[in-house]
Amino acid sequence: MKRGIVLLVIGVLTIWTAPAAVAFKGKVTVGMREETPSMDPHLILTNTATNAWRWSYDTLLNSQAGTGKIEPWLAEKWERLSASQFKFWLRKGVKFTDGAPVTSEAVKLSFDRIVNPGNKSQQAPFWRLFSRIEILDEHIFILHAKEADNGVINRVARFGHIMSPKAVGMEDKAALSRTTFGSGPYILKSWTKGHSMVLEANPDWWGNRRYPNRPKTFVVRRIQESATRAKALLAGDVDLINDVQDQFVPQIEADPGTRIAASPSVRIMFLGFFTTHGGPMADRNVRLAINHAIDAEQVCKTLLGGRCNPIGGMYHPWNYSGHNPDKKWHGYDPEKAKEHMEKSEYPQGFKATILGTVSSFPADKATCEALPGILKKINIDARCQPMPAALWRKTFTATQQQATDTQQQAKEPTMYYMGWGNSQGDPASPLRAQMGCGGAWSGHCFKDLDQQTEKAAATAVPRQQQLEFEKAMDMAMEKAMYKIFYQVHDVYGVRKDLEYKARHDEMVFPWEIGVK
Description:
Helix content: 25-40%
Distance between the termini: 39 Å
Largest sheet: 11 strands, mixed
Shape: globular
Strand content: 15-25%
């Protein structure tokens, strides 16, 4: 009986590994809000770019749509030798599109390129514990971490795209940014910046038989405005669009040729505070008052059509550790809100600014604009400043700098409404980036939380690590560092003649699109 099972597994691996001449079906055009700044998968870090790289570059592992379960990809299997050593077996017979074989050496060169200080990769902080790749043979290697790093398996399903050795040493960096040198399912054929990309199915991809109905041609059009994307779908100019705003859902559902595909996602929406400024935002009672004054459930129903789920912190269900579905954040309680405001140092209220984005997150502008009316009930005279994402980021950074410059304190208390995705499922990521001292997206500096974060990240035993990460988030809640709103849904508009299931991680993978 055991011999039969082994033979069955080997057969499945053979089907996955062997390239196949598959008659791909037609063309699919996708309308997306943003385009990647570069097709070089190792140096920058944006959500849109991380999505686009997977079209042409394989990662070692993959995260299944919806479930987030980690499955084999370029590596056909793996083993956790310890919390700091992970062994991988690459598929045999796989080639890059330039003809070079995919080997352990290619993996080593790709990872070394990310962590090389000279490349100044924005992804390097994710690999701060990375030590080296130990090559055992052409297809087997061990990834070593400097200390316990249980996030490796999730991380290699999201980052660490494997690049051909022929490209790694290229002096023409511009060519690396506009061309593809991977072993993945699609090959970039043309790219008109700011307009569209055209990719063709790789006839030699190892996974062709697994996805026989994927499109032969995959076209990505940049359509920034939500209304324009919806109109393009309804007119038949595109086949699929992302980031569908709630007001366009009824039109798409009513059209006989289109439908909505949605799924709870990794994105968690919240209101943050610049506590490092001093003043009202540094007063815990003020932050608790704001937490209890906002009815997030009502905002969800009113502005997002109910397409969001309550959540008890910054950990979504696909984090490798830390998420506890029974946890709850500070809820809506107007009486508690008034009590905390009266106990604060600012019972008479104050003026404040809320930095908000426009069309970056579901109902972001509408939510920001609703907050002043809500906060007025606890004597906070707030004004919403909605702006495009690029300007929002510059304004956020400038406000951070004001907070650390004793000669130039912010003119008034500042809050910010945004979402955090954490698609790689690393629970240390929101703690370091959103809450830590010096975090790129942090308005805080609580050293005791930083210490707990690093303790949790370095804990080797998974069960104990879960408790340590929960403790870190409990500390963030006790400090009322944010007002957590909810976990939003990814909402897509799709032509009905396509088979498509929305993913949980905000990615759109063309091989998961079935052409009928």
